[in-house]
């Protein structure tokens, strides 16, 4: 779906999105994210083309003015009296700069403004190109009205909940599963320097992120009954042995949550626009926050998007990530195959799994 959208095959992308929604209803969020990503790419490309055309016109105008000034100077050699008047008039001529504003890094507000203005200019093109996504969205709304909920099956067990701590768990899990990218001295220094360049704004954002994280883990940490009842999954032990090890543990983990999110933003910011990163965060939040159950499979799609757009340029990082995943897979298979156990209240062999 995402690849088709990047290749501007919007109808095919929307069809794949419809299939994804049939498989899992919350994939409607990722379909909308893909559509938004396509809109961002088109509008910013249109904005860049418009700026380049304007700069080209300005450059041609400046060239014409220079040619006119040269002819005036040549004629002044023949008519010295007129040359004095022409030279005074030419002092007020403005020669436009050929520096393109598209080469400058736009701030988030400037990007939003550019997207809004460009979207309005090409509104009919966008409407035609992305109408398949709109029809899928309408079909999903019709499903919600018919079903009464986004959930199929046991609706009471998967009720929508304000589980804001979920995005905190996602950040640290994503950072750990890509540890060679996040937890290095060079990356930590790079992150610190990016804050130090604009200390006031940087530390204000750091303070607000810390407060939001503390509020999330204090008021919106949810222990789903399925999480507490099933000791076959590793999330049961992570919750029991780490988060609930002591009452203060969920607060002590806040700095790691904040660092992980800031690191994700920093890595994505090297390859993607700020507005894309913001939409990615909103999409991830829209998928994870309503989910009351802590499940690693909920994190796979946003993690894939993060890895896809992370700037991994050195072979050492790839090697370390490969070793990390090999060790994790070996551990998972070993525990599943060679460490079975039994429940007293239910017959049969039980096995550990993610």
TrEMBL record:
It comes from the Eukaryota. It holds the Pfam family DIE2_ALG10. This is Dol-P-Glc:Glc(2)Man(9)GlcNAc(2)-PP-Dol alpha-1,2-glucosyltransferase. GO terms for cellular component: endoplasmic reticulum membrane. Pathway: Protein modification; protein glycosylation. It catalyses: an alpha-D-Glc-(1->3)-alpha-D-Glc-(1->3)-alpha-D-Man-(1->2)-alpha-D-Man-(1->2)-alpha-D-Man-(1->3)-[alpha-D-Man-(1->2)-alpha-D-Man-(1->3)-[alpha-D-Man-(1->2)-alpha-D-Man-(1->6)]-alpha-D-Man-(1->6)]-beta-D-Man-(1->4)-beta-D-GlcNAc-(1->4)-alpha-D-GlcNAc-diphospho-di-trans,poly-cis-dolichol + a di-trans,poly-cis-dolichyl beta-D-glucosyl phosphate = a alpha-D-Glc-(1->2)-alpha-D-Glc-(1->3)-alpha-D-Glc-(1->3)-alpha-D-Man-(1->2)-alpha-D-Man-(1->2)-alpha-D-Man-(1->3)-[alpha-D-Man-(1->2)-alpha-D-Man-(1->3)-[alpha-D-Man-(1->2)-alpha-D-Man-(1->6)]-alpha-D-Man-(1->6)]-beta-D-Man-(1->4)-beta-D-GlcNAc-(1->4)-alpha-D-GlcNAc-diphospho-di-trans,poly-cis-dolichol + a di-trans,poly-cis-dolichyl phosphate + H(+). The chain crosses the membrane at residues 12-40, 126-146, 166-189, 201-227, 247-268, 275-298, 318-338.
């Amino acid at each position: 779906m995402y690849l088709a959208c990047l290749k501007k095959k919007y109808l095919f992308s929307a069809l794949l999105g419809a299939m994804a929604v049939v498989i899992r209803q919350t994939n409607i969020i990722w379909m909308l994210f893909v559509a938004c990503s396509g809109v961002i790419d088109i509008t910013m490309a249109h904005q860049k083309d418009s700026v380049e055309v304007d700069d080209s016109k300005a450059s041609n105008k400046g060239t014409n003015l220079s040619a006119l000034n040269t002819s005036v100077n040549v004629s002044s050699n023949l008519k010295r009296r007129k040359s004095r008047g022409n030279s005074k008039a030419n002092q007020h001529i403005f020669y436009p700069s050929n520096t393109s504003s598209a080469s400058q890094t736009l701030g988030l507000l400037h990007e939003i403004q550019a997207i809004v203005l460009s979207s309005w200019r090409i509104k009919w093109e966008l409407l035609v190109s992305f109408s398949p996504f709109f029809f899928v969205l309408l079909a999903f709304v019709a499903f919600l009205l018919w079903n009464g909920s986004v959930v199929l099956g046991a609706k009471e067990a998967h009720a929508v909940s304000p589980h804001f701590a979920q995005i905190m768990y996602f950040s640290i899990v994503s950072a750990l599963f890509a540890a060679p990218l996040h937890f290095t001295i060079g990356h930590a220094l790079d992150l610190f320097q990016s804050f130090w360049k604009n200390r006031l704004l940087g530390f204000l954002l750091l303070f607000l992120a810390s407060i939001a994280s503390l509020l999330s883990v204090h008021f919106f940490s949810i222990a789903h009954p399925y999480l507490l009842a099933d000791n076959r999954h590793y999330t049961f032990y992570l919750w029991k042995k780490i988060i609930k090890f002591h009452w203060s543990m969920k607060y002590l983990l806040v700095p790691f949550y904040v660092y992980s999110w800031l690191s994700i933003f920093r890595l994505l910011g090297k390859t993607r626009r700020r507005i894309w990163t913001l939409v990615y965060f909103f999409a991830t939040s829209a998928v994870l926050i309503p989910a009351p159950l802590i499940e690693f499979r909920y994190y796979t799609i946003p993690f894939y998007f993060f890895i896809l757009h992370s700037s991994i340029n050195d072979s050492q990082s790839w090697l370390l990530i490969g070793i990390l995943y090999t060790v994790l897979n070996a551990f998972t298979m070993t525990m599943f195959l060679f460490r079975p156990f039994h429940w007293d209240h239910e017959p049969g062999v039980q096995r550990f799994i993610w």
